[in-house]
Amino acid sequence: MSETYRPVVNHLTRVILKLIDEPVPYEVVAPSEQLPPTAASVRRFGESLSRRAERVAAMMEALEARGFTFKFAKDRVFADSTEMEAQDAKRYLLSQGYEDTEFQVLLEYARKWDTL
């Protein structure tokens, strides 16, 4: 019996969720070099970080409902799926009210060989 080989492609959709806005909004703490930071400006900075963390957590919940799994690295959360295509993930997050500047979507392919 002769074996026939066919290429099989597996994909990984990765959504990168940034915990800190880039660039980091340090101007909230010290609007200029001439003005020293104040307790109120530090609180405003903390509030902006808190709002960002809440947005990321809400995106995680939305993606988790679609079967994504999560990893953490440095100041980012990686949401991974082998089920949802990258464009579908982007459309889904946009339809949930998130801006495309709040996340980045990557698609990775891995070629495998299968026998028939």
Quick recap of the structure?
With 116 residues, the protein is of the alpha+beta class.
Would you spell out the secondary-structure blueprint of this structure?
Blueprint: E1 5-18, H1 39-64, E2 69-73, E3 76-81, H2 86-95, E4 103-115
Antiparallel strand pairs: 1-3, 1-4, 2-3
Keywords:
116 residues, four-stranded antiparallel β-sheet
Could you explain the architecture of this structure?
The longest helix is centred in the middle third of the chain and has 26 residues, at 39-64. The mean pLDDT is 85. The protein has one domain. A 4-stranded antiparallel sheet has the order 2-3-1-4. It starts with a strand and ends with a strand. The protein contains 2 helices and 4 strands; from the N terminus they run βαββαβ. With 116 residues, it is of the alpha+beta class.
How would you write the strand order of the largest sheet? 2-3-1-4
Q: List segments where confidence is low: pLDDT < 50 over at least 5 consecutive residues.
A: none
Proportion of helical residues: 25-40%
Structural class: alpha+beta
C-alpha Rg, in Å?
Answer: 20 Å
Task: Report the sheet-strand fraction.
Answer: 25-35%
Q: Main beta sheet: strand number and arrangement?
A: 4 strands, antiparallel
